[in-house]
Amino acid sequence: MNFDGRPYSSPSRVNSGALDFRGLCTREKSLGKAGQDVAYKCGKLQPNASGLLYLQPFSIPLLPASDLRSTPNANMTRAPVICITHGGGPMPIVGPMLGDKGHDNINATLSNRIPALLKLGTPDAPKAIVVVTPHWRPDRPTVTGTAEPPLYHDFEPSHPPQSWDISYKAPGSPEVAEKICELLRNAGLQPVKDMERGWDHGIFVPFLLINPKGDIPLVQLSILSTEDPVQHYRIGEALATLRDENVAIVGSGFASFHNVAIQRSLYFADPNSSEVQLWLGRVREWNKVLADSVLNRDPKERLRRLQGWRGFPYSLDMHPAGEAEHLMPLMVCAGAAANDEGAQFTDTFGGVEVASQYWGSTGIL
Hints:
Elements: E1 19-20, H1 21-24, E2 26-27, E3 40-47, E4 53-60, E5 68-69, E6 81-85, H2 91-97, H3 104-118, E7 128-132, E8 142-144, E9 166-167, H4 174-186, E10 192-194, H5 201-210, E11 218-221, H6 229-239, E12 247-253, H7 260-267, H8 274-294, H9 299-307, H10 315-318, H11 328-336, E13 342-349, E14 352-359, E15 363-364
Parallel strand pairs: 1-9, 6-12, 7-11, 7-12, 8-10
Antiparallel strand pairs: 2-3, 3-4, 5-15, 6-14, 13-14
Helix pairs in contact: 3-5, 6-11
GO molecular function: ferrous iron binding; oxidoreductase activity, acting on single donors with incorporation of molecular oxygen, incorporation of two atoms of oxygen; zinc ion binding
Protein name: Extradiol ring-cleavage dioxygenase
Organism: Colletotrichum higginsianum (strain IMI 349063)
């Protein structure tokens, strides 16, 4: 796929090759010091008069410079911890190609804010990134151990056919994977190293936007089959020392709100409707209590509060019983944050505000 207007071979399906965003997205500005504005030029599919699909450029909007400021007392010598909202399946990538603007806010954050927090393109960029996915739930913490992990296109049949053509290449890191296992073993957590499973969409979809160059090794880490916040918090605590080796920890999930049936309804609803306004208020209340808990500077108090997360307002609306997997990466991140100062910001998705959190970096408030 190129910007030169060459057509795809099929008017109904992108089948001339994988959708590789390293060729689709380029920075309009190089990323200098953390906090500098960055934009990406990307492509979307447009039919010509003959019905063939052409790639035409579009730009993910820049975040205003006024949205960027330094977090006081941030320790710039350690890699950050960030918990992102990764969007709905393949749609952050495929949606803009099809004219769907529902992920514009999330995509702007993934393309601008998160690279700035990670200091990509600077000498302080992490040497590797551990990415905690909510789509892998074994009984024991499991890590990808290969140098060249494949992709696992874990999409639904209802997703657009282009979804299975998405491609992303970045190295793994057997060295970091082994270090993760060592730290987890030392914490009594019985890790497993997996040499077969590929990166799922909780990894490759957001990182197509975060780092389309694919020049930083990624190591995928599972959550657990349980929704126990303590076990996930302990995983994060065990991995916190990786940050001193400039290995960042990124949780990929939907911590604010992952009630799929309601989200789908809101996504297509009138933003001014009573339904959207009702859920906007509920999610805001949940976000506030969640932020008060995960951003507490005392790790013991933070854990104490998170142990009671099912008592937070509207918890069963935000994450139905037995379906809290998209919250668990945040529990890991909260454990890895140690006593760092953190912050939370929100993006609009489906008419409500979905939150992301970070610790130990330059930030956006």
